[in-house]
Amino acid sequence: MKIRTITTGISLGSPQETAKLKIAADFNQKAQIIFEQQGYEVQTTRIATNPWEEYLSSLSQAEIIHHIKKLEEFCQSLNISFFNIGYASTPETIDLVPEINKNTSIVYCSSKIGKQFENAIESAQAIKRISQETENGYGNFRFCAGANCQPDIPFFPTSYHVGETSFSIGLELADLVMQAFSKADNIPDAENKLQIILEAEVKRVEAIAQQISTQFKFTFHGIDTSLAPSLDQQNSIAFAYEKLLDGKFGNPGTLAISGMLTRVLKSIPIKSCGYSGLMLPVCEDIGLATRANEQTYDITNLLLYSAVCGCGLDTVPIPGDISINKITAILMDMTTLAFKLNKPLSARLFPIPNKKAGEMTNFNSPYLVDCQIFAVN
Prior knowledge:
Helices cover 42% and strands 17% of the residues. It is an alpha/beta fold and 377 residues long.
């Protein structure tokens, strides 16, 4: 098991409050050292702010871009590689997101879609424009549309903060799932074995986080127990499923396993936060990408799995010529599930410029694996 992220949340009143960024960066570094001394690999540390609309209000678009670029430069001077400015919640601010994205390289953000689909069209327009204005559409790695998402999710791009400074932990648990499933005879047996393994391991992380909280007087918001995947083929979440399936990921039984995994993740008796559910990011898991290439599942299947897990549609490549109306419809489906089931869901979609369904992506990214582009009917 790895620590995917230590994410510290701060509230800014103005873009000049860079001292808060320095304090958060120093804390992240010290927390990382403590976890590493306890034998954990910490993959990233991150900082998220309150929604940028709050501390950049009453400014012109040019001034907003200027201040965000200045904040990014300050973060880079502190060796911060992941900086989230929260969500945009109005048509006007969502319309500015592609410009923010184009002018930055480590800044993440999201849009907020309401119960009545407020901002769905504007979010779709932002996704489409980002795909057209960044190489291979890769800019959408740093943007997503969210529905019913609460503060202090440690995972990006959904993350945002409210209130006093606090930190949360995101884990990478796919290796423990593979371990439990490889030894299980059936789904109930896998559930029991996974519950035992995860409870012991995650409680240990919680105990260390509580010690850090006490030592540095930073509020510990909780652990997001979501199964963040691995680019390691041996620990692919899709291949872990196949230890229990009579077939491949996407075949009958996939929904049942998704539900079981989420049940275990939500039952771990710790201070939890965020999605705390199953993540199925297509381009962040070699097994998911492989089965996408074989067309054993599609976007409709992913939405179905979201009904019993989370976090929605993540790193899903779609044709570059997809219409804004179709992207909007996908976001509306996601939003319907989020509010009907009272769970946080988000959509990080990758329209790939000049490519069609069935062709391969070409991200050239250390964070993503290439796969075939999904058809959208």
